[in-house]
Specification:
heterodimer, A: 659 residues, alpha/beta, 16-stranded mixed beta sheet, B: 201 residues, Potassium Channel Kv1.1, Chain A, four-stranded mixed beta sheet, 10 helices, 4 strands, 51% helix
């Protein structure tokens, strides 16, 4: 464009600008694209993720402008499954994830808008799932070809965020046509997770041969009639059900960490692996682990001999090998300096969980290893362990050992310390771990029948925790009062404790309140609180209490409430009708019709991870003016375990205007 | 209007110090004059470099003509210098690269920017031109806040964002303005294509 035309355009803009702002001084319009480029980019830097994506989707020009914004790379992660999704992670917002879903039921959302993707205007909605950690923010697009839309959107995000794909999760049981696209678009990325029944062995071969996974390749696949002999080069190779991987594939690769769970590797294979390593194979290798189930340990010495046949080795002595990297906990226990150094390592927060009981223990969970847990406990028989070492805790050197193995649900590692004051050592270790891992206590479970001096410590050290569970015969009602009054439990309080001569009337504010043998909690306490999920078994709530509950809810109380259950032991069901009438006295309600309530959730996810199906039979419905509606049911049922007759009242509330 | 007759706009009476400090004189493109403290000027990288390069003494400041800022009008410049005086001595923020950016708009700035969008546009333009980092931040944040809770269609309306079709039309119009014959040729070419002609020539 020559200077004359440029000048003409400028004059046109000034005329338009004057017209726009002279008509209405408080115009809500702003000519963003006419700002100087640096100012425009600065404005875009303040948009949140979905506002930024919306801006980039408007036109080719806005897409280009969005792509010029200088920013840290974000994580673009894809899950190819029956309904594919994308999730974005930002380095400076570790507690949030931005999801992009392609669902069929967007029209159910109360607030929805048209957005243009892949050349078409489609219905979409934004939903925030604030109760989840990390916080989930979802941008949901309606229907269409989920895989095609995912690919299109990834290409768009790749340009506007100037960021590559970080990780790919693939359900191998679904069509994996996307792999061709991935190979062409970006064949090299950091993480790849494959799961499920492999519907095409050639598809698996294609992935292993054509994609370059830089950091971690994690596979848990159901494969048959397939063997892989070629190199699988990734920094970390983690393969469950790895019977299809041959030793040749391992030798052809140069992995740094290898975890292969397979029954196929023989002691002879492992002997070969040791010999190859001795002969100079794979200078990158730091760690190799293979694992298979055996019938018994009778022949372990013969197995060890076969594995080490022709290899010169001797028993490991840690004192002769001070340079060998130890676990982060061992490293942090050496000195104040190593503790400080360990605490400077940047890492995701871990879960520090404590069980205060006759033998207290700590268990740690790591977000990146959901199938493992690390236990720290004290036992008296450490000296019987074949390999044991001195470790310094709480100012003293004590005998200790490390064990590992498959637990009931998780694979465990166990650091066992010998004797000492168990409770004091637990508290000391928790304080140490809190500093080293820069992570708070997440969960405390307490046996109420033992001395619980630790509660005072907990109140001072960290009074606010996510999960608390108490069980066992309560030694003192004061202990319960102390817990309820002095600890702030944020997510879930569960209590299985029968108390005599004790009633609690004050608020217990926690997201989920699960009480059993709970004859001590009054309706006043429930009505003073703002819980989201409440389950009270063995309650003392009378029909009149439940009537008070319904009236208070109808009056607008507790907009958070999703679920309330009260179960009371009764002698017989003679008063069933009268009790129902008393519960519903002066309440406007009607018989529940599922077809009239399509937005009612079908299930309820509890904090403990359990998903409960909502029963809709024999429900009655009531509504209040703020858009909340609820269904309740009242029934008598016999407990299969103790044959007691229970009067059960269940109440489920949802928002008519929101999913 | 001559410089001698230009109105002198005191940005902040209370800000005039008792001790002897240098106050520079600036003039907007509509001949409004401003006296701005040396410390306040440091908020603007452009002006700070300019006055350093000029090397004025106190006498020069009084005797020489006010420094002309030809691209900015008096109304906008008044806001700019009010902001600079209020925030004088504050550290210039360094962008740590994190996006979305987090910047709080202080109460003073919010009141200062309680203006129509036309003046806000000029203020951002001036902050960019004078390289006043934090003023640019807060004013851009105010613009970004306009996107909050908006649907894509509303976003288009608020920010006056043309669609691809509108951009194409504007481009064609600009080309036409540049060379009307070129448009005619293009139309003729399109028409021949529609009629099935293989060659234009």
């Amino acid at each position: 464009m020559d200077q004359k035309a440029k000048k003409k355009n400028e004059i046109l803009f000034i005329k338009k600008f004057k017209k726009l702002f002279s008509k209405n001084k408080k115009s809500n319009k702003f000519p963003l694209l006419h700002l100087p480029i640096l100012a425009l980019q600065n404005c875009l830097k303040f948009l949140d993720v979905y506002e930024f994506i919306d801006f980039s989707l408007i036109s080719k020009r806005t897409k280009y402008l969005a792509s010029t914004v200088r920013r840290q790379q974000i994580g673009i992660n894809i899950q190819f499954q029956s309904k594919s999704l994308i999730y974005l992670t930002l380095p400076n917002y570790p507690d949030k994830e931005w999801l992009i879903n392609f669902w069929d039921d967007v029209d159910k959302f109360p607030i929805k808008h048209l957005r243009k993707i892949n050349g078409k205007l489609v219905l979409s909605a934004i939903k925030e799932e604030a109760e989840r950690v990390p916080l989930f923010l979802r941008l949901i697009f309606s229907g269409g070809n989920s895989e095609e839309n995912t690919k299109w959107m990834v290409e768009h995000l790749n340009v506007v965020f100037s960021s590559p794909i970080g990780s790919v999760y693939l359900d191998m049981s679904v069509d994996i046509g996307a792999m061709d696209w991935l190979q062409k678009f970006q064949p090299s990325f950091d993480f790849f997770w494959g799961v499920g029944q492999v519907c095409s062995n050639s598809g698996l071969s294609f992935i292993l041969s054509n994609l370059q996974i830089k950091k971690e390749l994690r596979l848990d696949l159901d494969v048959s009639d397939f063997q892989y002999n070629d190199a699988i080069n990734a920094h970390t190779l983690y393969v469950k059900r790895a019977n299809w991987i041959t030793m040749d594939a391992i030798f052809a690769s140069e992995n740094t960490q290898i975890y292969v769970f397979t029954p196929c590797f023989t002691p002879g294979d492992l002997n070969k692996l040791l010999k190859e390593w001795m002969g100079g194979w794979n200078k990158n290798l730091e760690f190799f682990e293979t694992w298979k189930t055996v019938d018994d340990m009778k022949n372990w010495r013969e197995l060890l001999e076969e594995i080490t046949k022709g290899i010169e080795y001797r028993e490991f002595n840690s004192e002769e090998n001070p340079e060998r990297p130890k676990t982060i906990i061992d490293f942090s226990l050496i000195s104040k300096r190593t503790k400080r150094l360990a605490s400077t390592v940047r890492r995701q927060q871990i879960g520090i969980n404590i069980q205060f009981q006759s033998r207290s223990l700590i268990y740690l969970t790591l977000p990146s290893y959901p199938d493992k847990e690390w236990l720290i406990l004290s036992l008296d028989d450490v000296d019987e362990r074949p390999i044991k070492h001195l470790r310094k805790i709480n100012g003293k050197s004590v005998l200790s050992a490390i064990e590992e193995g498959p637990g009931q649900t998780l694979y465990f590692y166990r650091l066992i310390f010998s004797g000492g004051n168990n409770e004091e050592n637990t508290k000391w270790m928790v304080e140490h771990l809190n500093v080293v891992f820069r992570s708070p206590i997440k969960c405390v479970s307490l046996d109420m029948s033992v001395e619980i001096g630790a509660l005072n410590w907990l109140q001072k050290f960290q009074p606010s925790i996510d999960f608390f569970s108490g069980k066992g015969q309560v030694r003192s009602n004061d202990d319960v009062s102390f817990i309820l009054s002095n600890l702030q439990i944020k997510k879930e309080l569960s209590f299985i404790a029968k108390l005599t001569d004790f009633h609690y009337n004050k608020a217990i504010n926690v997201h989920s309140l699960f009480l059993e043998r709970a004859n001590w909690i009054t309706m006043d306490a429930i009505l003073a609180s703002e819980n989201t999920q409440i389950s009270i078994c063995d309650s003392c709530f009378t029909p009149n209490d439940l009537n008070k509950f319904l009236k208070k809810w109808m009056g607008g109380w507790n907009k958070n409430l999703e679920y309330f259950k009260a179960v009371r032991v009764v002698e017989d069901d003679k008063r069933k009708t009268e009790n129902f009438e008393e519960i519903t006295k002066d309440i406007e309600f009607w018989e529940y019709n599922a077809e009239e309530n399509p937005e009612r959730p079908k299930e309820l996810e509890l904090w403990s991870g359990y998903v409960m199906d909502i029963i809709v039979e024999n429900n009655f419905q009531l509504s209040r003016s703020d858009g909340k509606t609820a269904a309740f049911r009242h029934l008598y049922e016999r407990d299969e375990d103790d044959d007691e007759l229970n009067e059960r009242f269940e109440f489920h509330a949802w928002d008519r205007t929101l999913l | 209007m001559s410089v001698e007759n230009a109105p002198v706009v005191d940005v902040d009476e209370a800000a005039i110090p008792v001790e002897k400090k240098m106050y520079y004189r600036f003039e907007s493109n509509d001949k409004k004059e401003f006296r701005v403290s040396e410390l306040a000027i440091q908020q603007s990288e452009t002006l700070n470099r300019l006055v350093e390069a000029m090397g004025y003494t106190s006498e020069d400041v009084e005797n020489k003509p006010a420094i002309a800022i030809e691209n900015i009008d008096g109304k906008t410049l008044k806001l700019v210098f009010q902001w600079c005086e209020h925030h004088k001595g504050e550290a210039i923020p360094v962008d740590d690269g994190s996006v979305p950016k987090i910047v709080e708009i202080p109460e003073f700035d919010a009141k200062l920017m309680d203006i129509d969008n036309g003046l806000l546009f000029k203020l951002i333009w001036a902050a960019d031109y004078l390289n006043i980092v934090q003023l640019l931040n807060v004013s851009c944040k105010k613009v970004a806040n306009m996107a909050q809770g908006k649907t894509p269609a509303q976003l288009r309306r608020v920010y006056l964002l043309p669609s691809d079709e509108e951009d194409e039309a504007a481009k064609r119009a600009a080309q036409e303005a540049q060379d009307p014959r070129a448009r005619e040729v293009e139309e003729e070419f399109e028409e021949r294509k529609r009629q099935g002609g293989n060659s234009f020539f």
